[in-house]
Design brief:
Rossmann fold; binds iron/sulfur cluster; 6 helices; globular
Length: about 180
């Protein structure tokens, strides 16, 4: 498997990457999260991901940070609750970019660390992932439940062991009001 793993943050990525490495799958990471606001928070989360990738010797590809474009994508959905329609659009944007990049760079599979967070809706992530690969028939979206097989527990342990910055809200300015 030649896997491009969309990574949303270091805490959500740890247990999934460990699971993959234990099975001799070395993913490339794609950090593309224009939803995160403000920019300082974006940089902190990106730097934590980069630090972890370097530690493991994994490639990490840096996506663009265009928060204005993200805002255009979710226009009209600002008042939606978390797990509502805005989040589906947010997942679509990030996973469509992942599928596009995977196609450009010759990967055969994509997956997303987004699904490791218990605050996110698994069905929405699966829907966004499956839609993202439609233009690329050779691509597979690995629709795995990354919270099972002890992965949620490993996430908690690895977060503590690595001393990662643990964000207090999902990412966009509309999620900060829930923190
Ligand atoms: S709450 Fe999280 S998943 Fe939903 S739109 Fe905001 S950043 Fe994206």
């Amino acid at each position: 498997m030649n896997l491009l793993l969309h990574t949303c943050c270091a805490p959500c990525s740890t247990a999934i990457i460990e699971y993959l490495l234990n099975r001799e799958i070395r993913p490339a990471l794609f950090y593309f999260n224009p939803n995160i606001y403000p920019r300082e928070e974006y940089e902190i989360r990106k730097n934590e991901c980069s630090r972890y990738a370097r530690q493991l010797g994994l490639e990490i590809i840096d996506g663009d940070y265009d928060h204005d474009l993200w805002l255009k994508n979710i226009a009209g959905l600002e008042k939606e609750p978390e797990r509502g329609k805005r989040c589906l659009e947010c997942f679509r944007m990030r996973l469509s970019a992942t599928a596009w990049l995977a196609n450009e760079k010759g990967f055969d599979t994509i997956a997303a660390t987004l699904a490791s967070s218990r605050w996110k809706n698994l069905e929405q992530i699966a829907e966004a992932g499956k839609q993202a690969i439609i233009p690329y028939p050779h691509l597979t979206f690995w629709d795995k439940n990354w919270r099972k097989e002890g992965l949620s527990e490993r996430r908690r342990i690895l977060l503590q062991e690595n001393g990662f910055y643990n964000q207090k809200y999902c990412g966009c300015e509309f999620s900060t009001r829930n923190s």
